[in-house]
Design a protein that fits this description.
By secondary structure, this protein is of the alpha/beta class. It has 5 helices and 7 strands; from the N terminus they run αβαβαβαββαββ.
Length: 171
């Protein structure tokens, strides 16, 4: 939906996916029928990005990043800390996000700084039972946003959004 809204406003959009290539291609076909173009790219921020992809992405002057990357969100065991679950979340919300922002800001002469939307969660205000690792990773992501904004001179918005109905939590 965000990609379609941005395209309707005249933006040049690259839609990324980890899984769901067919869905991304379907969206691209819909967009092309309306006379617009949409780039699609497989991008897995939970792993180090291949060097060739890093170079390619660093060579594009992206103005905005809307960071909707997320793993499957599962509750942990109430009262028990899971380092594995926390690490899984951090791979996406901290390490992957940081790596991607640093790639996008390198090597480009920017008239304007990169603007980033990093959706956080209202769960940080009132953490539900069983979601401690998720909340800790999202809180780390918010701290990282402040650090990247200062150190890389990027504009980062990290609003705490309410739980949204998605394919992941629709059931």
């Amino acid at each position: 939906v965000v990609a379609k809204v941005l395209l309707a406003g005249g933006a040049h959009v690259t839609l990324t996916y980890v899984q769901g290539k067919a869905d991304a291609e379907k969206i691209r076909c819909e967009v092309q029928q309306s006379g617009r173009d949409l780039q699609i790219m497989q991008l897995d921020v939970s792993r180090p990005l291949p060097e060739a992809l890093q170079i390619e992405m660093a060579g594009v002057d992206y103005s905005h990043l809307y960071y909707f990357a997320t793993p499957h969100i599962a509750s942990g065991l109430a009262g028990k800390w899971s380092p594995t679950l926390f690490d899984d979340y951090c791979r996406i919300y901290v390490h992957g996000f940081s790596a991607l922002v640093q790639i996008l800001v390198q090597g480009i002469d920017r008239a304007h700084p990169l603007t980033v939307l990093y959706p956080s969660t209202v769960f940080l205000d009132a953490p539900p039972t069983g979601f401690t690792e998720y909340c800790a990773a999202k809180a780390s992501g918010e701290v990282l946003c402040k650090h990247l904004a200062r150190s890389l001179a990027v504009h980062i918005h990290s609003p705490r959004l309410p739980r949204l109905q998605t394919d992941q939590n629709g059931s």
